[in-house]
Design a protein that fits this description.
Helices cover about 45% and strands about 10% of the residues. The protein is mainly alpha-helical and about 240 residues long. Strand 4 and strand 5 form a beta hairpin.
C-alpha cells in the first residue's frame, strides 16, 4: 500500500496479479482513521480476484469516500454483496449497462456545464457515438479496459480505416474515459493512450492510373487517353 495523491493505492506483485504487476487506486483517503476501511477494501479486492473479477472492476464498484457513512466497513461489505448479486445476473462486466448510462449522463452534464459543447452538438454528434459505447459494454463478455473498448468500437467500421465517423467515435470515447478516470469513476486501466492512431486506422489511398498522353489533331491539345497497344502517341 502507498499514498498516491492523498488516496490509498494498492500495488499487486506479478506473482499475485496473474502474471503482471498491477496498481489500483482505492476510493479511500490515506488517513489514519481509514485503516480499517483500507484493510477491508484490500481483502475485498483479493476475494473478488480469486473469483475471476479484475481488481479495477472491483474497485470501480466501491463507494467513493464521500459516499461512505460513519461505519465505512459496513458500506464496503454492502457494496461487495451487490457485486455478488450482479454476478448471479450474469453481470461480470466492470459496470452494468445502467451504470454506464449514469456515467455517460454525468459526462454529458460535464460537457454542457463547462460550455465545451452545446446541447445540439451532443444530440447531433455525441449521442450517436455514446450509444455505440453502451452497445459495446452490454454483452456477455464486455471490455475490461480502455484498449479493449476502443478495439471493439473500431471493429464497427473495420472496413473504413481512417474514416471521419470512426475517428469521431474513437476520440469521443477516449474523452469519456479520460474524464471518468480523472473523476475516479473508473480505474487506471481505463485510461486511454494519448496516441489513438492505431484505433482510428489509416485511410487507404488508391493510386491513380496513369494513362499515356496522346496528341489530338482535331482539338490541338494533349490529354490522357487510352491507346491501343503498340500505337504511337504522335499518330
Amino acid at each position: 500500500m502507498l499514498n498516491h495523491r492523498g488516496h490509498a493505492r494498492l500495488n499487486i506483485a506479478a506473482g499475485a496479479g496473474g502474471g503482471k504487476r498491477r496498481q489500483v487506486l482505492l476510493p479511500i483517503p490515506w488517513e489514519c482513521d481509514q485503516v480499517d476501511q483500507i484493510r477491508d477494501a484490500v481483502v475485498e479486492v483479493y476475494d473478488e480476484f480469486q473469483q475471476g473479477i479484475e481488481p479495477d472492476a472491483c474497485v470501480a464498484r466501491m463507494p467513493r469516500a464521500e459516499e461512505q457513512g460513519s461505519d465505512g466497513a459496513a458500506v464496503l461489505r454492502s457494496a461487495s454483496s451487490q457485486v455478488g448479486r450482479a454476478r448471479h445476473r450474469g453481470g461480470a462486466a466492470l459496470h452494468a449497462p445502467g451504470d454506464w448510462d449514469a456515467l455517460i449522463a454525468a459526462f454529458r452534464e460535464h460537457k454542457l456545464i463547462s460550455g465545451e459543447i452545446k446541447p445540439s452538438t451532443w444530440h447531433r454528434v455525441y449521442r450517436h457515438h455514446m450509444n455505440h459505447v453502451l452497445g459495446a459494454v452490454a454483452v456477455t463478455a464486455p471490455p475490461q479496459n480502455a484498449k479493449q473498448l476502443l478495439e471493439t468500437l473500431a471493429r464497427i467500421w473495420a472496413d473504413k480505416p481512417g474514416g471521419r465517423t470512426r475517428q469521431i467515435q474513437i476520440q469521443s470515447t477516449a474523452a469519456l474515459l479520460r474524464w471518468a478516470v480523472a473523476e475516479r469513476r473508473l480505474g487506471e486501466d481505463w485510461e486511454p493512450p494519448q496516441d489513438l492512431a492505431v484505433f482510428v486506422g489509416r485511410r487507404v489511398r488508391r493510386k491513380r492510373s496513369r494513362r499515356p498522353w496522346r496528341w489530338s489533331t482535331s482539338l490541338g491539345w494533349c490529354g490522357p487517353s487510352r491507346m491501343p497497344a503498340g500505337a504511337s502517341p504522335f499518330n
